[in-house]
Amino acid sequence: MTATAPTHTSEPALWIERKGQGPDVLLIAGLGDPAEAWQFQLDGLGDRYRLTAFDNRGVGRTPLPDGPLTVATMADDAAAVMRHLEIPAAHVAGFSGGSVIAQELALRHPELVRSLVLVSTWSAIDTYFRSVVDSWRWMAVAAPGERAFLEAFFVWIYTYRAHADGTVAQIIDETLAFPYKSSPETIQRTIDAFLAHETADRLRNIVAPTLVLAGGQDITTPPRYGRAVAETIPNARFEVLPAEAHQPFQEVPEEFNARVDAFWREVEGRV
After folding, report:
1. Could you tell me which residues come within 8 angstroms of residue 4 by beta carbon, excluding any fewer than 6 positions away?
2. Which pLDDT band holds residue 66 (cuts at 50, 70, 90)?
3. What ranges in the chain are assigned the alpha helix state H?
4. Which ranges carry the AB hydrolase-1 domain (predicted)?
5. What is the C-alpha separation between 129 and 139, in angstroms, rounded?
6. Residue of 178, 201, 213, 199 lying closest to 35 (CA atoms)
7. What CA dihedral angle connects 74, 45, 36 and 162, to 10 degrees?
8. Which of 64, 180, 192, 204 could form a disulfide with 60 if both were Cys (CB 3.0 to 4.6 A apart)?
9. Are 245 and 253 in contact (CB under 8 A)?
10. Contact 192, 69 (CB under 8 A)
């Protein structure tokens, strides 16, 4: 099922994908990723949950508006999607930049968040992380072509295993064939929003049950970032997938789905 949802007055409509039946789950994608980034979850968890994914501003079929782009605005967009769909509260899962949006959603709209899953997350910008993301910013326009950009960018995202077995090559082909690719302007403005945003001094105010997942081989957001988030959010759980990198929900979807399903079942039982 697909739909569009108006967010704020005079702002763009967000493209929405929905699938399944059961307790509500909201999936928030990372930098430049459309709703289809969550396809393994939409397909693999739809028999137990009603999953909603959407295209962030400037991504996929959602237009990029003029004016400042902020994490707070994107969190309000996520809240608007839920209210448009009359979802009173949901298990919220965010990946990478989407995990920062999810943190902000839990802080700004706590009544909407039944639980949090934060994948490849962070809460503060240090010199290492700024250097990594700044390199993506100029690479988006300096690369000799789209394929060259993706080949360089995905070195930071996927495991050696995925590069060696042809998975990354397949993902690049699929990305290039996708008719709604993110523009360099979207990539750069979204990066600027992420780099301008920090939650470290506010995470203690999150009240939702939280699971933080990190990839042991993640060179973009190494486990130390996720551990710092989990240590600040009250009673958060921290788990490492030792053999995985930045995007485990795509590389090992069955293991990822099993972990989040077990967590959501636990939360449902506790409620």
Report:
1. 13, 14, 15, 16, 61
2. confident
3. 39-44, 71-84, 97-108, 127-142, 146-153, 160-164, 167-177, 184-195, 223-232, 248-251, 253-270
4. 25-248
5. 15
6. 178
7. 110
8. 180
9. no
10. yes
Q: Which of 158, 177, 176 is nearest to 168 (CA)?
A: 158
- 1, burial (CB in 10 Å: exposed 0-12, middle 13-18, buried 19+): exposed
Homologous superfamily assigned to 2-125+197-270: Alpha/Beta hydrolase fold, catalytic domain (3.40.50.1820)
Separation of CA 30 from chain center: 4
pLDDT tier for residue 8 given thresholds of 50, 70 and 90:
very low
pLDDT, one tens digit per residue, over 97-144 is 999 999 999 999 999 999 999 999 999 999 999 999 999 999 999 999
- Residue type at 174 in one-letter notation: E
SS3 54: strand
Tokens representing residue 33 in the block: 């990723």
Contact at 8 Å (CB) between 184 and 153?
A: no
- Cα–Cα distance, 13 to 200 (Å, whole number): 30
Rounded Cα gap, residues 64 and 238, in angstroms: 34
Distance separating alpha carbons of residues 72 and 104, to the nearest angstrom: 6
What are the residue boundaries of the structural domains of the chain, listed by start?
2-125+197-270
